[in-house]
Amino acid sequence: MSLSVPRASGYRGTSLGAFESVWSSKRCFSVSGMRKKELRAMSEEELGGIKVQQERLMRDIHETCEWGVGERWGSAPTETGMSRLSLSDTDKQARDWFVETTKTLGCTVTTDAMGNQFAIRPGLKDGPPTVAGSHLDTQPTGGRYDGILGVTAGIEMLRTLHDNDIKTTFPVGVVNWTNEEGARFPISMVSSGVWAGDIPISHAHDLKEVGTGTATMKSELQRIGYLGDIACSHEAMPLAAHFELHIEQGPILEAENRKIGIVQGVQAYKWFTVKVRGADCHTGTTSFSHRADALLAASKMIIYSHRAASRKGALASTGILTLKPGSTNTVPGSVDFSLDIRSPDDSIVEAVEADCKTAFSAIAAGEDIDNLNTSFTPSSKSCTVSWRTDSNSPATRFHPTCISCVSETTKALFGEKQEELTKAMTSGAGHDSVYTSKRVPTTMIFVPSRDGVSHNPVEFTKPEDCATGAQVLMGSVLRYDLLRGEGKV
Amino acid sequence: MSLSVPRASGYRGTSLGAFESVWSSKRCFSVSGMRKKELRAMSEEELGGIKVQQERLMRDIHETCEWGVGERWGSAPTETGMSRLSLSDTDKQARDWFVETTKTLGCTVTTDAMGNQFAIRPGLKDGPPTVAGSHLDTQPTGGRYDGILGVTAGIEMLRTLHDNDIKTTFPVGVVNWTNEEGARFPISMVSSGVWAGDIPISHAHDLKEVGTGTATMKSELQRIGYLGDIACSHEAMPLAAHFELHIEQGPILEAENRKIGIVQGVQAYKWFTVKVRGADCHTGTTSFSHRADALLAASKMIIYSHRAASRKGALASTGILTLKPGSTNTVPGSVDFSLDIRSPDDSIVEAVEADCKTAFSAIAAGEDIDNLNTSFTPSSKSCTVSWRTDSNSPATRFHPTCISCVSETTKALFGEKQEELTKAMTSGAGHDSVYTSKRVPTTMIFVPSRDGVSHNPVEFTKPEDCATGAQVLMGSVLRYDLLRGEGKV
């Protein structure tokens, strides 16, 4: 399905003003006769009748994506990627929109000392809000859905509640977490990390932007006016629960024709830099038996890590490899490569690490591991290998009540097709929900990503899938609020 | 054996003036009673009695290496590398020394339009000279022996002939070829290539220096005063034969305790850039079965090339590997790597290339080649691979008469130990002799390199080995002159 926004009436290549005129004429409410209704008084059928609007959601996504337009990949106006680095001028535009929009929907907007934005809609009772949270910043060559979908879907929830004048028992809201990507300031999920108490705020404030610039997170928060007065803390800004809608960033849902991933947790990962040292030598004058070829050894290690992870159902990946000296006729004496090991199970990550550590040492020493040296000319020289641990993120298990809220919502939505259209999944990537889950009940909802592509301009999720995700997000938040009202959580 | 120059008497850390004072007091002639002797009238025993002087040779090497001192690797004054890029100010100083020194030894010095310097010592008869040639330029992080030994040993030959007043039948001489390294102006052996008629002089003159500078070979030749009047051509400056003494740049002679490599030719090589294309994806969210991992495929290819070359007794090496996008949590979708295939036999290079081309395509397609996919999780996605040929240098066979001159000289020098102390070898690297061999009888002589290290500051050849090489170089040149005098060549 292509974009459902009307293209013939001024949408293609038009300004934001034209967007507005198109959409203003389309304001409509899908749930009539339910105004001023208390959520807790609704039947299951009435709850299911509260519907988000796909076209309004897509308008929010594409309208806000005018701030930070990235690389073009197709001819339609929305067929561009995004480049909206955290705390940039375009991020400020998106933040301003967040404030203005949620205020018109009856929310109080609070900004904390990390620039995290909390738009809270009052309930019948006071208390911490149940929120939908994600982030509006993107990778430098990112797409339109990662993070953005989660926040705009949260706002679509607010619009739907507002238009239908539905009163939740406790407050609900939307959170925009700052610098989730870690692309500009090089710690991912840094601001939910500060909120959770895992990262000291001084460390986060002092983070310098990558590249040649000299700005820090704090200086940029000040510059764009988003250094909030209240502390960035789960104590100063408590939440009742955190739900995050996100694109899968992987190919499984699409490949299996499923619509919703019911996320059970986030897999563990450890990141290493593996340093292989041999000896530079001339490619033409040095026989194989006299070489300590660091790249040949690294190649065997990369293959071995893939095999070792494969045997345990884990993942092992190398995304960075640098070598020295880097000349066609010089065998490299020095190779560094990244190794990223992941599994839903911490012990499996540890086992793959241990297996690789033993095997890499043997490979460096020239031993025949796993037949990788079969039919090689053995060398009288060997390499050395050392490991540096760069990150260690244990597995996260999301909260069963939150997961149940998602599951119940999909049952109501899909009926007997629920099992066919949903999948219990583990998130492969980290998200702000990893940090919120340390403090409050949390879970995530996945929707399909075309070809599993993410962090790329061509990242794409169908409008109908975005809307389904937003519907499940809203349903899950409302169900959690109902459980709170009933004193069940 | 350590450096045999006296260290207690002002050598360590002293200026060139101190060198001079040390060495002036050591001038002596090893062949007395042979003054004004004609070479052609000498007995084999007398010929063997003409000896180069190790200490004088080492003085020339270390004294001239004051121009272009590189990275220090030890505490002694000579324990530094070299950084004397072609046509730099320090190269000019070395060239000036070449002219002055060889003139005092009775030579006529000619500079051609590529700055190649020909120092010619007259013989009893006119005719093209039999020369010892190599180069005085170095890599930016090079050593003291590559190229420099060949030229200074040629000058030591001139000094020995001069001091003993020996008349050769035809002229003999020494050549300093310009920019052999290709380090500053990016074609190796470019000036012997122009001399041989293989490279147009306009192309060579227009070569721009690497890096950010704007100088060309011609502008730098003009600037330092070495743009000669005569054409750079084997016709304008004919040679009778070319002998080149060089460090092995490999570990074989040292490993086998041999002193002289009798070089039979230069192996063939082809250089390629192999481009592997898969798809970027997230390391955490993409299962192995959905990946097109360009680095994993490239790792298998690198290992395969090593095996394929090993099976044929050839060499295959990867010295450069670049990947995109280069992030720990992104599987690289794009890898380019260099592949350097060498063998003394052209047909073997072609066979390894053909084998790799077939296998790399199969590896990219995900087939199990050579058990490299054993116990992998197969992927439903595949990579593509393409090849670009960057260089193609067929095998060079040196001239049997020149090789015989070297062999006979080592027999006279080593006696019954000749077989034990020499080895027939193929040069793995290219040299100016590759180009001279296209026009005149040519061969090379190798001496051991410590640990096979070259193009590196720690490059080292023992003084006694340098002197042995110089002795064999001189003997070979003189034997060739004798054969010419006898009308045998």
Automatic annotation (TrEMBL), chains A, B:
The keyword Hydrolase applies. GO terms for molecular function: hydrolase activity, acting on carbon-nitrogen (but not peptide) bonds, in linear amidines. Keywords: Hydrolase. SUPFAM superfamilies: Bacterial exopeptidase dimerisation domain, Zn-dependent exopeptidases. This is Amidase. Gene3D superfamilies: 3.30.70.360, Zn peptidases. Belongs to the peptidase M20A family.
